[in-house]
Amino acid sequence: MELPPSVRAVLLDNDGDEDRLILFRRTVPGRDLYWSVPGGHVEPEDATLEDTLRREMLEELGATVDAITPLTTLSCLQENGVKTQHVYGCRLVTMDVALRCGPEFSDPARGHYEVVRLPLRPEEISAINLIPEELGTYLGEHISRLPELIG
Prior knowledge:
Layout: E1 6-14, E2 19-27, E3 34-36, E4 39-41, H1 49-61, E5 63-78, E6 81-95, E7 112-119, H2 122-126, H3 133-142, H4 146-150
């Protein structure tokens, strides 16, 4: 069964010294610790996948982004079907987590979304439980090239 598609952001932030990948460190009741990149489902009001990406960045991070670049499309097998994940690279312009407005932040059962920044090194990605696994594999293979892929 084909599930509604999603977009995911491989979001880079430069701290002045080096680019870093912005991720969520997820703690959810009853689950092992895992990590994810921002993103979410395509909604009927989203005219394009880029519109979905921009909306999700505002909802989940209070962020605006630029240099939006298609990176890959993943087919992720889930218990109830196959989920298509459109993965975009982008660069952070502004972020204010106080402006988060997604429904996941008002439901305690959804757990915590701690924003973290990881250096772009393969050992950093291989050391975490990144969900979906297919994205973790992609990032493990391309992490050091992300700045040139995204621009």
